[in-house]
Fold this protein.
Amino acid sequence: MRLTRYAVVALLVGIMALAQQASAAPSGPPVRIGSTLALTGPLAATGQVHKLVGDIYVEQLNARNGLLGRPVEWIVKDDQSKQDLARTLYEQLITVDKVDLLLGPYATGNILAAMAVAQRYNKMLIHHTFGIPSLATYDMQFPAWSLGPDPATTFPNTVLDALAASPKPPKTIAVVTSKFPSVQFVAMGAREVAKKRGLKEVLFLDWEFGNREFGPIAARIKDANPDFVWVGAIGLEGNQLLEAMKKIDYMPAEQFYMYPAPGPMVKAPEAKNALAATIFEEHAPFLNNPGAAEFVKTFNERAAKAGLADTAVETQAAASYTAWQILEAAVTATRSLDDKVLAQWLKTHTVDTIQGKLRFNGPSNYGDDLMRVKQVQNGRWVVVWPPEAAAPGAKLMVQ
Amino acid sequence: MNLPSPTLLAQAILSGIFVGALYGLLGLGLSLSWGLLRQINLSHFALAFLGAYLSYQLATVGGVDPLVTLLVIAPLFFVLGAAIHGLLSRFAVTPLNSLLVTFGLTVIIESVIQWYWTADYRRLASRYADITFRAGPLFVPLPELMTFLLSVSLCVAVWATLRYTDLGKAIRAAAEDAPIAAAFGVNQRTLAALLSGVCAALAGAAGVCLALTYTLTPSQLYAWIGVVFAAVMIGGLGSALGPLFAGIVIGVSEAITMALTAPSWAPLVSFSLLIVVLLVRPGRA
């Protein structure tokens, strides 16, 4: 009897200790994580998404005892969408603010600028959406966007596989692209891949990033009348081209947009059945990934509260969240803030993220190409290819 | 090089005329303030975008017809323009310094736009947006047609006012030689404030056209500066019809370039034309 009583007391003490540990607030000096983001300037529409995701993640992280039991402080500076300023601010984060760890800025050019600084100071850099893997030559940089090391070959093949499996596989293709680097090189890859697969190229043209007038471009596509249009568009360019085609009463049989502004495009009636690239959408199987459902709910609410026009989680928000997941996984597993220790761990382990399992042991620390093909269907984006990533019951629709 | 079909070429030229008319409308106020007030007002572009966002707000939230928003925006901007002029006059800002001061003002207005409307893309979904007329094989979108008509009307109205009315003659006289004009009873300060207000109101009108035809984002205002400056300089400083003609020439040249060659060459057109004009007629600007 006495033994039982002792056992009950011991159990209660154990439960109380566990409960206290679970609810313990992080203590001690904060772990300082430094970033810049494009909070103003031409990239600000996406920069503010990354800011919101970071705020959410740091709150969640501190609510579950921070990193190594210490609170996390995120120091984020506005690089105004400028590469030179990003470079200066990362210098400042390392030498003046003396941050423990770095997270990348938004946009390929700014990440490249930050990467050079990180390399100079031997700091690890985990970054969100770097578009040209071959340029990521620094040994201690880690991508959160699972493009794979050669997206200019792998991703066009994914898109053309999807179309080949559709009821009306295209025979002719038009490749039109912005000269924005991270979309242009994939468009060039698409030309090569299409040629190898026997598609006839009926039009190729490119325009300067920032082009305002898409009327003549739309007229040229209409004139060429391809079965499928690969549009190397980034941001608003996709919508601008769609609007210009609508004005001349033209809609291609099949059309793919590389990195469109997802909110405006899904709302545009003329974007019906348009295809685009993604790593995450708000449906199964993505919502089954660790932390995904909770994050989507929180992001939707907070984005609406912040007045963002598009409150959905897709590539940008997902890559941003993934970057934080990678950082937390490495610190938690190694119980270290040493950049070299963390980098070594990442190279030899996989990390469970909301976009799936990521590995970093390929060329330029890239792993698998987890890019998916999504389509506007009934006013929402749904992944349609590959089949294992497709929304339940979703199939590629053709005009 | 494959020759484009006649339809493609005609459609491209039509697009060029429409976008050129918008260059002209944006350039009208800039040209007047530069040529007649000696103020290089970069904030003209920020005011145009502010006008676009206000039009978006009134139409989207208030349910007001986008064209009706002009009745609110134009008077409001008239007052704003007169106030900006008052500030520049108070400190006797030189033309070069006006460029710097109004650039600062542009950054402030852009920040205000981003603070209130965020950096997200905004699209005015008006009842005009989906209307397109057909002229044989060509398509004429109503928002672009409205922009063209508004631009031509305003440019002609300003030109006629400057040329045929006493007010216009007084403004031109004050710009030509302020002391002599004053000796003839012209109140130069009042006229300058009036003209500045009109320029800002024209920026507001251009803003309504921008909202009708383009998706808005704050930083896009900078994308228009180079080409509109070229239109103003080719058209002649202080001219009301010049920027419109120059804008249409630039717009059509860009469109033909896009239809015939790589569209990425189009941005070279406006500045190549500007260089040619400066070489052929060096006194033009």
About this structure: Residues 6-37 of chain B form the longest helix (32 residues).
